[in-house]
Specification:
- The protein is an alpha/beta fold.
- It has 9 helices and 5 strands, in the order ααααβαβαβαβαβα.
- The chain has 2 domains: 2-87, Methyltransferase, Methionine Synthase (B12-binding Domains), Chain A, domain 1 (Orthogonal Bundle); 94-214, 3-Layer(aba) Sandwich (Rossmann fold).
- Helix 2 runs parallel beside helix 4 (63-80), helix 5 crosses helix 9 (202-212) and helix 6 crosses helix 7 (158-169).
- The chain has a 5-stranded parallel beta sheet with strand order 2-1-3-4-5, sandwiched between helices.
- Helix 7 links the parallel strand 3 (146-150) and strand 4 (177-181).
- 56% of the residues lie in helices and 10% in strands.
- Bound molecules: CO-5-methoxybenzimidazolylcobamide.
- CO-5-methoxybenzimidazolylcobamide (B1M) is lined by residues 46, 49-50, 53-54, 56-57, 63, 66-67, 70, 102-109, 111-112, 148-150, 152-155, 179-184, 199, 201-202, 205.
Length: 215
């Protein structure tokens, strides 16, 4: 057990040390040893990237280091994410996800997307820096049950409210649940802009979608 924990910690460290080759090698070894892909994501890759975020905030890492660490994160993420698959064969509830206009931070959104998909939902990813018009167009065409919006910057939060206002204006708001998340988002903000819910992380987002789409 100690060996396994050591391996998990090595993966976390490889992300922090910006070593994409080592991260991929360690993730492959961990999978061969029987570790679950979701555990590798939740217990190594996400904590590694979170710590990178803290180093950046403390000015111990700068943009180049953060970019290299994101590459290391994705070197592991791209191996585990196809393995975190849904077992469900039922007709799937559709969810549209995207990062709002002006914001290119998509690591968190990509994690949320994988876990939503793995929980049996049909997810459409609009990507990052998604304009309000694109959100509205996608909702009009795809008619999803849930619209999930992510924002990592205080300066771009305003676009979440903009999308909701546009849905109201176009009389589309009653037919869709809207959830919001990302580091600067909280429950109070979600309520204020008229969203149906806020989730702190990817697992909470899945739970929230389940809760609001029942019935
Ligand atoms: Co920048 N950045 N960044 N950045 N970056 C932040 C967000 C910042 C807080 C750093 C800081 O100053 N302390 C700050 C924003 C300040 C603000 O709020 N106004 C900031 C800034 C200012 C900038 C630039 C403007 C810097 C510049 O150029 N001067 C620029 C912005 C460009 C733009 O968007 N237009 C910029 C650029 C970048 C990089 C490109 C270098 C890179 C992004 C790479 C990428 O995403 N592809 C980057 C990164 C990595 C960060 C930090 C360091 C880490 C973010 C991250 O990936 N965390 C971040 C500082 C920090 O967070 N401490 C910072 C790890 C990830 C797993 O967590 O994204 O929080 P997170 O996702 C979580 C939850 O939030 C939640 O679940 C996820 C998984 O558990 N969640 C949801 C997310 N979305 C959800 C949706 C949901 C539910 C839950 O439902 C819909």
């Amino acid at each position: 057990m100690q060996g396994v924990n050591l391996k998990l910690d090595e993966i976390r460290k490889a992300v922090i040390e910006m070593d994409d080759v080592k991260t991929a090698q360690l993730v492959n070894t961990a999978l061969k040893q029987g570790l679950a892909p979701q555990d590798i994501l939740n217990n190594c890759l996400i904590p590694g990237m979170k710590e990178v975020g803290e180093l950046f905030t403390r000015k111990e890492y700068y943009v180049p280091e953060v970019l290299l660490a994101s590459e290391a994160f994705y070197a592991g993420f791209n191996i585990v994410s196809p393995l975190i698959k849904s077992q469900s064969t039922e007709k799937k509830t559709k969810v549209i996800i995207g990062v709002v206009k002006g914001d290119i931070h998509d690591i968190g959104k990509n994690i949320v997307k994988v876990l939503i998909e793995a929980s049996g939902y049909d997810i459409m990813d609009l990507g990052k820096d998604v304009s309000t018009e694109r959100f509205i167009k996608a909702v009009t065409i795809e008619k999803p049950a849930v619209l999930a919006m992510s924002s990592l910057m205080t300066t771009t939060l305003v676009h979440m409210e903009e999308v909701i206002k546009e849905l109201i204006k176009k009389k589309m708001r009653r037919n869709i649940k809207v959830i919001v998340g990302g580091a600067p988002v909280n429950e109070e903000f979600a309520n204020r802009i008229g969203a149906d819910g806020y989730a702190e992380d990817a697992m909470q987002a899945v739970k929230l979608i389940k809760k609001i789409t029942i019935g």
